[in-house]
Automatic annotation (TrEMBL), chain A:
Enzyme class: transferase
Keywords: Cytoplasm, Schiff base, Thiamine biosynthesis, Transferase
GO CC entries: cytoplasm
Official protein name in the record: Thiazole synthase
Binding positions for 1-deoxy-D-xylulose 5-phosphate per the UniProt entry: 156, 183-184, 205-206
UniProtKB/TrEMBL annotation, chain B:
NCBIfam families linked to this entry: thiS (TIGR01683)
Name this polypeptide is given: Thiamine biosynthesis protein ThiS
Gene3D superfamilies per record: 3.10.20.30
SUPFAM superfamilies assigned: MoaD/ThiS
């Protein structure tokens, strides 16, 4: 699957926040074999210049970057942040977040659609962080988005895929749209499950960064994503409610 | 001139945004700027005159999810 015409080297998108150190971040990105890394923008202090050091680090990783508009609660903030990100990171890709609610960090889907419409008209390639709502998905596509990124569960919660039915319905409704589960994935089995549903990628941050051993966890996610994608291609068996013996009964000796 | 840079009160001598970036030691740095909530591209910084009370934001790459 292509994302705005680009084939990624891996369906694992990895966030760069919350790692114990820049070295561990770099090692985790390599261990994950991440196809994309997400980045952000924050105020630069004249004295510290932390952003310049981070910029050098991500340049050395040579992985495509996807800047986000994390923390933006209004359309104006998100659009302005996207403009600043395009200049700083030299990419027209943007992971568009318009947050509507503080406890769940649930997207404000109304603001999201409006911001997406503005940004796509300005040439941005928008990756909208959305819910699994089909109607919102339709409106995002009509607004010019060519990728959808529904949440699995609230950001940083690690709860996995809260609404498997909804995610499956989204996949079925939009067979040709690249779909990414973004947010809420806690362990590699959640990522494998998303790929088994036919999702094209997963975006993970906290689950790797906050693991006891982020580098080992990055590798675990890489394997899980590969396994899940392969399983989807292999066409999983149909689930059923009753048992069915896998060992043939024919030829069984009568011993009773 | 008294302005706010990243919400911090500063007295600066720069007359343009480009000069301000220079004065703050960020010339050539990987940054983006906004003035009073509006994005100002790097190419327009030298045309933007600093005025009393302006709210200027200067951002740079940072870790994100």
């Amino acid at each position: 699957m292509k994302f705005y015409g680009t084939t990624l080297s891996s369906p694992l998108m990895l966030g760069t926040a919350q790692y114990p150190s820049p070295e561990i971040l770099a090692s985790a990105v390599k261990a994950a074999q991440a196809g994309v890394i997400t980045v952000s923008l924050r105020r630069e202090s004249a004295g510290q210049k932390a952003g310049q050091a981070f910029w050098s680090l991500i340049r050395e990783l040579e992985v495509p970057v996807l800047p986000n508009t994390a923390g933006c609660h209004t359309v104006k903030e998100a659009v302005t942040t996207a403009h600043m990100a395009r200049e700083v990171f030299e990419t027209d890709w943007v992971k568009l977040e318009v947050i509507g609610e503080a406890d769940t960090l649930q997207p404000d889907v109304f603001g999201l659609v409006e911001a997406a419409r503005i940004l796509t008209s300005e040439g941005f390639k928008v990756f909208p962080y959305t819910t699994e709502d089909l109607v919102v998905a339709e409106k995002l596509l009509a607004a010019g988005c060519e990728v959808l990124m529904p949440w699995g569960a609230p950001i940083g919660s690690g709860k996995g895929l809260n609404n498997v039915f909804g995610l499956r319905a989204l996949r079925a409704h939009f067979p040709d749209v690249p779909l990414v589960v973004d947010a809420g994935i806690g362990v590699p089995s959640h990522a494998a499950q998303a790929m088994e549903l036919g999702y094209d990628a997963v975006l993970i941050n906290t689950a790797v960064a906050k693991a006891g051993d982020p580098v080992a966890m990055a590798r675990a996610f890489s394997l899980a994503v590969e396994a899940g994608a392969l399983a989807y291609q292999a066409d999983p068996m149909a689930e059923r409610d009753m048992a069915a013996p896998s060992t043939p009964l024919l030829g069984k000796p009568v011993l009773a | 001139m008294n302005i706010l840079v990243n919400d911090e009160a500063r007295e600066v001598s720069a007359s343009t945004l480009a000069a301000l970036v220079d004065e703050l030691g960020l010339k050539g740095a990987r940054i983006a700027t906004a003035v009073d909530g509006d994005f100002v591209p790097a190419s327009r910084r030298s045309h933007l005159a600093i005025a009393e009370g302006m709210k200027i934001e200067i951002v740079a790459p940072m870790q994100g999810g």
